[in-house]
Design a protein that fits this description.
This protein has 124 residues and is mainly β. Helices cover 0% and strands 48% of the residues. It has no helices and 11 strands. Strands 2, 4, 5, 6, 9, 10 and 11 form a 7-stranded mixed beta sheet that branches. The chain has a 4-stranded antiparallel beta sheet with strand order 1-3-8-7, with no helix packed on it. It is globular.
């Protein structure tokens, strides 16, 4: 059974940092694209960042570019999201996702597996 388990969320002041982790089990995702999405109350789930399963290339939403960094450790079957210079607008539940394909996509329906989410709250 495939599982993605996020951790690292919490409450932080504006300008602070958090590092989210997503540990995968049940299969190896070293050749799979992985992504992070977020959903704020009353809003649709939106793309945050993704990393490819081929060359480690990355792609970011404009709203987080320059502040967030996605990375992966294939030996640990884990993907990370380093979030710096956090803003109140970054408050949301953050979800990790994995797709069976190699290539990056920002579309939620392209991802095959999802974690349960971790809450990130940024206070002003």
């Amino acid at each position: 059974q495939v599982q993605l388990v996020e951790s690292g969320g919490g409450l932080v002041q504006a300008g602070g940092s958090l590092r989210l982790s997503c540990a995968a089990s049940g299969r190896t995702f070293s050749n799979s694209a992985m992504g992070w999405f977020r959903q704020a109350p009353g809003k649709e789930r939106e793309f945050v960042a993704a990393i490819s399963g081929s060359d480690g290339g990355t792609y970011y939403a404009d709203s987080v570019k320059g502040r967030f960094t996605i990375s992966r450790d294939n030996a640990k079957n884990t993907v990370y999201l380093q979030m710096n210079s956090l803003k109140p607008g970054d408050t949301a539940v953050y979800y990790c996702a994995a797709r069976l394909g190699l290539f990056i996509t920002s579309r939620t329906h392209d991802y095959d597996y999802w974690g349960q989410g971790t809450q990130v709250t940024v206070s002003s």
